[in-house]
Structures are given as structure tokens and as C-alpha cells.
Amino acid sequence: MSSPATTETAERGWAPTGRTVATICAVGILVVGQLYVVLPVLGDLAAEWGTSRAAATWTTTAFGLAYGAGFLVTGPLSDRWGRRPVIVGGLAATTLSTLVVIAAPSLSAGLAARVVQGLTASFFAPAAFAYLAERIAPRRRVLALTCLTSSFLGAGVIAQVLAQLVDDAFGWRAVFVAGAVAFAISALVSLVVLEPGADRNASAGSAFTAFAALLRVPRLALLYASCLAILGSFVGIYTGVQLAPPDGVGTSSAALLALRASAIPAMIAIPLLATRLATINPERRLITALTVAGATAAIAAVPLGGIWVATWLFVFVAAIAVAAPAAVQAIATHAGPARGTATALYTFTLFLGASAGPQLTNLVAHHGFPTVSLTIATLALTGATLAFASTKTPTP
């Protein structure tokens, strides 16, 4: 017998919360995980392509830049074509683009393949955010959006752990073969689980005009700038773990796997606190979370061993998991009727930061993990300062 909540949701025409959120979040981990799967295999890629591990980090940047830039196109396309067709079509295309990475004979070819993979993967996030905002019952919407943003962050840890396990057992190419299979399955599951929407007649061109309008609002411009620090600091510190492992961790696969896995509980805990966190003003949450992330990154710079770093990395990841949904909620609050376009621009800045993070780490990694950690702390605190400045700027 259906529960009252289930019946109420069905009567109002909302999509079923459980299977919808579970499906979209699982696919979100897979899609965003492609940004991170190269981190554990940087050494293998460098050896395969005859280059350095530092140069191989550009495979993360290439994907992230294409992924983020793609949102500026795929967000408006989902307004015009509908959410489900864009999600399913993008997943099918990413099945093929993921296989292309395997065939790359050199770094330059690998970078080109990752750009294509990033572009096809970019069809997912804007359409997924919009689908949840439109099809999930209002009283469950904050939870759904928090779960989705947490899945994006969780991908940074889960994808690295799985990629390292697969790489250790079968080699780096198997990481991308497994990803392609998972994308094909995800396309079929999404086709079944997601519901078709009404025909859309929105002009894709009108969304591009809205991008410029949003950035002309000082408060929103500052919030978008602060978003660069969210995934920028997250990807940056994990790149540092790979390029300049902390004292007491070493370079063994087991030690690096344990350090990455130590943050997984934080990704699980934050969505469970979504209802309570939603009672706090989103800008205050964003400022506080980025401040905590900066402080914990600075503390992790103290060379007191692997357990010390793992403990503060756990707190750092939890803070980033709070910051991401707070940022999108703060932006939506001030975006007015342009919320869909505002969300696409949010995801663009989020992953633009993720693309810059590895290169920022590259600049300082030769000085060791403490320098990396302090650099990331500065980035996170700069983001907090920008978010705070946004609260002092009036919204027209």
C-alpha cells in the first residue's frame, strides 16, 4: 500500500522522489567522476605518452574546461529540447567519446579526446538541475538539489578510489572501458526512469542574452567569482595529494587509496543534514563553509603525518559539500525568472574552477604538500571573501 507521502506526490503530478533522485545522483557521480578518474593514473598516462606527470594533469584541465564551457550551450538546449532528451542523448554520446580516450597515442591526442569527452558530458548537469527543480515536489526540492551537488563532489572521491582499484587490477585503459559501459547503462536507465516533459519553444538565443544580464548584476558577479574556489580548491588539493603526497602517506597505492577514501563519509553525511542546513541563509552557509575549508586546508599543511592530513581533509571535503549547494541556492535567490540560465552559469564557473585547480597545484607542487595546502587555503579564503562582499552589494 502506498504511503501518504507517495500518494500525495503522485496526485500532484510530481516525479517520484526516491528513484528520480537516486538515478540522477548516480549518473552525476559517473559524469563528474570523469574529471577525476585521470588523477590516480597520471603516472600511467605519462609513461604511455612519453611525458611528465605534471604535463599529464592537463588531461583534467582539458576535460574540465570543455565540460564547463559546454554548459553555456547545453543549458539553453535543454530549455529548447527538454530535459530527458538532452540527458539521454548526452549520455549516449559520452559512451562513445569515453572510448576514444583509450585510443589516444600521445598527450596531444589524449587532450583532444578529453575535450570531446568533456563536451558530450556537459549535456547532463544543467538539464539534471532543471529537471529536479521542475519535477520534484517543492518540500523535497532542497534535499534533491543538495543530493545532486553532493554527488558531484562525492564523485571527486569515489571516482578516484574506483579508478585506482581498476587501474591497479587491469590498467588505465580499463578505467575508461568501465566508464563507457556505465554510460551506456545510464542512458538506458535514464530513458526509463525520467519522465518526458512538455514540448518547449524557448529560444536558445535568449538564454545567451540572459548570461550577460546576470553578470551585470554586481551581487551575482561576486557570487559567481566565489564559485571558482569551490571545485578549484577541491580538485587542487587532491591533485596535490597525487603530485606531492603528504608526509607519512608516501606514494604507495594503498596509502593514497586510504587517504582518498577517508573523505567518503563526509559526502554521505552532508545530504542527511540538508533539511537543517536549509534553515540557514545560503550566503551565510557559503561564506562559513569556504572559510572552514580554507582554515582546514591550512591546518592540513602542518606535517604531522597521514592521519592528521586525513582528518582535516575529511573536514575540508565536508565544508566544500556544504558550499556547493549553498552557492547555487544563493544565486537562484537573486536571479529572478532567469534561474535556469543562472544555474547553467553556476555550473560553468564551478567547473572552470575545477579546471584551474590542477594547474594552480602544478605551479607549487615541487615545494611539497604543505605549500600546496596553503595555496588551496588561500584560494578558499578568497572565495569566502568574495561571497562576503556580495552580501554588501545591493541587488537592483
From TrEMBL:
The chain crosses the membrane at residues 21-43, 55-74, 86-105, 111-133, 142-162, 174-194, 221-241, 253-274, 286-306, 312-332, 344-365, 371-389. It comes from Nocardia lasii. It is a multi-pass membrane protein. The keyword Cell membrane applies. PROSITE patterns: MFS (PS50850), SUGAR_TRANSPORT_1 (PS00216). It is found in: Cell membrane. This is MFS transporter. Belongs to the major facilitator superfamily. Residues 20-395 form the Major facilitator superfamily (MFS) profile domain. It comes from the Bacteria.
